[in-house]
Specification:
Elements (H helix, E strand, L loop, with lengths): L2 H9 L6 H19 L20 E5 L6 H12 L3 E3 H10 L4 H9 L7 H18 L4 E4 L5 H10 L4 E6 L2 H10 E4 L5 E3 L3 E3 L8 E3 L12 E2 L6 H14 L1 H8 L4 E5 L4 H11 L7 H6 L1
Helix pairs in contact: 1-2, 1-6, 2-7, 4-5, 4-6
Length: 288
């Protein structure tokens, strides 16, 4: 087991206190930095990304359905660092024959948050696999979701930047309910056409549907947790438990808040501008 995995799992124990986290982090930090190919003790804050994968250690925050996976995935490909989504880790575990899958199904289908212990175990396993492959840097999506998780992460690695995506709640609800996946090719689509009047002088928000090609139309499936009742519960849980994480990173000067102005073609170039990143193929990637 890697030093990083050992530290995360140790910190994830039920009896870990703030003082224990601090002591353990001071002992493990050098080993973690070496194991992950990172440089310990870097100055926090935005840096010019892309020159070296190890220079990108980012986190994406935002409500369920806001588009964390979409934008984190695009940045992952652009910057050449892995996109690690805890939602994907959970779905992979759900699809497995692991005894954990039944427990996870009960939690997810009722719109509840998966426990810290389960998430940390899944993440530590993924980090260990990445370390063996020689991965440098990362973009985390879906972790941390709680103050406790943020403290764990702060204790074992130096996060450079936390990108907090924001979108009006009525658009979020429509997006989540409209999500579809092709059962054959695995492609992700959205049948929702969102057209919302602006508030207080803000421009109108239009987000066109992302429709599947003809060969996928008859094979679309809806996630079990993408119902109005479950989505509303997920949003309520997020506001109760995850907004303090925003405050945690805001107080450390690491939070970049980005209000999505619309769909991908409109939002992607503005996000790149906010991050001071140039995309040599911007026109094609924005329209994809």
């Amino acid at each position: 087991m890697s030093a990083m995995s050992r530290a995360i799992r140790a910190f994830g124990g039920g009896g870990a206190s703030r003082r224990n986290l601090s002591v353990a982090a001071s002992k493990e930090a050098p080993a973690l930095a070496a194991a992950a190919g990172l440089v310990a003790g870097r100055k926090a804050g935005r840096r010019d990304p892309g020159e070296d994968g190890s220079r990108v250690q980012w986190v994406f925050l935002g409500c369920p359905g806001v588009g964390k996976g979409t934008y984190a995935g695009r940045l992952s490909r652009l910057l050449g660092v892995p996109h690690i989504a805890t939602g994907d880790l959970v779905r992979d575990a759900l699809a497995s024959q692991d005894p954990l899958s039944k427990q996870l199904a009960e939690i997810v289908n009722h719109g509840k948050l998966v426990s810290d212990e389960i998430i940390i175990n899944l993440l530590s396993k993924r980090l260990e696999e990445g370390e063996e492959k020689g991965e440098l840097g990362f973009i985390l999506d879906g972790f941390p979701r709680t103050i406790r998780q943020a403290e764990i992460l702060e204790g074992v690695m130096d996060i450079d930047l936390v990108i907090n995506l924001k979108l009006r709640e009525e658009a979020l609800l429509a997006k989540c309910i409209g999500r579809r996946k092709c059962s054959q090719c695995g492609g992700n689509f959205n049948v929702a056409s969102i057209d919302i009047e602006g508030e207080n002088g803000a421009p109108r928000m239009y987000m066109p549907p992302l429709l599947p090609p003809p060969q996928c139309e008859s094979k679309l499936i809806t996630r079990a947790d993408d119902t109005e009742e479950v989505v509303k519960e997920r949003l309520r849980v997020y506001h109760d438990l995850c907004e303090p994480v925003e405050d945690f990173y805001r107080a450390r000067g690491k939070l970049l808040e980005f209000n999505l102005p619309g769909g991908i073609p409109e939002s992607w170039p503005k996000l790149l501008q906010a991050l001071n990143i140039e995309d040599p193929d911007n026109k094609r990637s924005a329209a994809a």
